[in-house]
From TrEMBL:
<protein>
    <recommendedName>
        <fullName>Beta-lactamase-related domain-containing protein</fullName>
    </recommendedName>
</protein>
<dbReference type="InterPro" id="IPR001466">
    <property type="entry name" value="Beta-lactam-related"/>
</dbReference>
<feature type="domain" description="Beta-lactamase-related">
    <location>
        <begin position="9"/>
        <end position="130"/>
    </location>
</feature>
<dbReference type="Pfam" id="PF00144">
    <property type="entry name" value="Beta-lactamase"/>
</dbReference>
<dbReference type="InterPro" id="IPR012338">
    <property type="entry name" value="Beta-lactam/transpept-like"/>
</dbReference>
Amino acid sequence: AHWLPPAATQQPALASGELPGAVAYGTARGLADLLVRVESGKVLRAETVREMKRSRRPPGARAPTLLADFDHFAGREWGLGVEVLAGCGAGGGASGWGHTATGGSFALLLGGPRPVAVAFLLNRTDGWKQGISNDVLKAVTEFADGK
């Protein structure tokens, strides 16, 4: 997560870009449990969960301009308050929903033969760039894919 001083919102680069996401605090286990509860209809109605997981990108929409710090989100799909992941597994397998962070943390519910909820909390700013988060996500999606 990033803290942005109020004056930063006045800068043209920020004003012309998009700033997805927010900040939350909790344990990885608690977050994974919340994902399972949402998916199973214990937090939201089933219809709301279905709509939440539906991409809101209009057909033929141009990719938005993002700040360099948020290049991780380029090309991502968004539902109602969640990131929608299609074929994030090796070979385009498991699909899911949740949130990924620019530094490499993620909280996702992945479908597949063995559905799994995962919360990976990383206290770094370069988890995706260094490959740490990619390696963990690959292992989890392979598990969800039944491999």
